[in-house]
């Protein structure tokens, strides 16, 4: 089920609260503890709209809120969120984005807007099958896979210019 690009005037508060509810449910299901700092890091990731955010930006934001924000605190929180499928890492940007479907196993597949930074998950099983089949033909066992596609999102295209 491909996710649509969010419209500029969508209710992003609803995205954030839905993501936090889903994260809490997923942690309960897994018996994992969503501590205050982990929850706050997830919330900050989502609050940046749908653009991925880097670890140091998160560190700044946490520090301003009085969390004991040493880099290991943030990296440990990010590792926890990654391990439980609540966020994805966008390799090319060295940044993190909230997962729109935690609890459903899937490899990361992203469309990344070069103008506004919006990242949208494709989550299309057909892409995984094609990669798996192509890798298998070469005798290659896939252990982890991230698909990152750069381009221009519908909102930025509507603003004119290229593409
Ligand atoms: Zn949103
Ligand atoms: Zn996801
Ligand atoms: Zn855009």
UniProtKB/TrEMBL annotation:
Source species of the chain: Magnetospirillum aberrantis SpK
Positions of Zn(2+) binding: 113, 116, 153, 156
Molecular function in Gene Ontology: DNA-binding transcription factor activity; transcription cis-regulatory region binding; zinc ion binding
Record-linked Pfam families: FUR
Listed cofactors: Zn(2+)
Family classification: Belongs to the Fur family.
GO-annotated cellular components: cytosol
Cross-referenced Gene3D superfamilies: 3.30.1490.190, Winged helix-like DNA-binding domain superfamily/Winged helix DNA-binding domain
Record-level GO BP terms: negative regulation of DNA-templated transcription; regulation of secondary metabolite biosynthetic process
Protein name: Transcriptional repressor
Cofactor annotation comment: Binds 1 zinc ion per subunit.
Key words, A-Z: DNA-binding, Metal-binding, Repressor, Transcription, Transcription regulation, Zinc
């Amino acid at each position: 089920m491909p996710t649509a690009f969010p419209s500029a005037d969508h209710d992003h508060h609803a995205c954030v609260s839905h993501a936090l509810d889903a994260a809490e449910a997923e942690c309960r299901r897994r018996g994992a503890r969503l501590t205050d700092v982990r929850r706050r890091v997830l919330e900050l990731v989502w609050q940046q709209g749908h653009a991925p955010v880097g670890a140091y930006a998160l560190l700044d934001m946490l520090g301003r809120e009085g969390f004991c924000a040493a880099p290991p605190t943030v990296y440990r929180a990010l590792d926890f969120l990654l391990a439980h499928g609540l966020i994805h890492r966008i390799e090319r940007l060295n940044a993190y984005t909230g997962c729109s479907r935690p609890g459903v196993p899937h490899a990361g597949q992203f469309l990344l807007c070069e103008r506004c930074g919006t990242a949208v998950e494709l989550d299309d099983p057909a892409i995984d099958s094609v990669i798996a089949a192509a890798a298998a033909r070469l005798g290659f066992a896939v252990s982890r896979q991230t698909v990152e596609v750069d381009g221009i999102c519908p909102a930025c295209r509507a603003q004119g210019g290229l593409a």
